[in-house]
Amino acid sequence: MPASLDGQLVVAISSRALFDFEEENKLFEARDDRAYMQLQMDRLEVPARPGVAFQLVHKLLSFNTPETQRVEVVILSRNDPGSGLRVFRSAQHYGLRIERGVFTRGRAPWQYLRPLNANLFLSANDADVRSALAAGVPAARVLPHAARGGDGHPLEVRVAFDGDAVLFSDEAEQVFQQGGLNAFQQHEVERATKPLPAGPFKPLLTALHALQQSGEAGDAASPMRIRTALVTARSAPAHERAIRTLMGWGIDVDEAMFLGGLPKGTFLREFEPDFFFDDQTGHVENAAPHVPSGHVAAGVANTP
Question: Do 196 and 260 lie in a common domain?
Answer without folding.
Answer: yes
